[in-house]
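TASK: fixed-backbone design
INPUT:
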């Protein structure tokens, strides 16, 4: 038995996703802000002020300047040379990374 609901077809999912992105982009669009006085030094000073107020709360990972935690993720891509191997970001190489965190209940 085939479902007749329109969102059961992958093409319609893609269209729905693009429509959602377009809606979000138009909702976030605004007039450009006045950028007078937005020098690099201003932004660095603002960042230093935020870090000065930061609190470690007893957790070393939340302290300003702390090293990024290491994590390993299993490569579940069956066509990958590293299939079923646990990898860190350093082992994957340089460049942008996309990690999809999926959950279902």
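OUTPUT:
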């Amino acid at each position: 038995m085939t479902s007749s609901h329109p969102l059961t077809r992958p093409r319609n999912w893609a269209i729905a996703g693009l429509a959602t992105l377009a809606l979000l982009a138009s909702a976030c669009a605004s007039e450009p802000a006045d950028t007078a006085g937005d020098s690099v030094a201003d932004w660095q000073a603002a960042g230093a002020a935020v870090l000065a107020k930061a609190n470690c709360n007893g957790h070393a990972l939340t302290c300003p300047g702390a090293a990024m935690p290491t994590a390993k993720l299993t490569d579940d891509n069956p066509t990958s040379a590293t299939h079923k191997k646990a990898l860190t970001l350093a082992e994957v190489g340089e460049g942008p990374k996309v990690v999809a965190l999926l959950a279902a209940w």
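COMMENT: The two ends are 25 Å apart (CA to CA).
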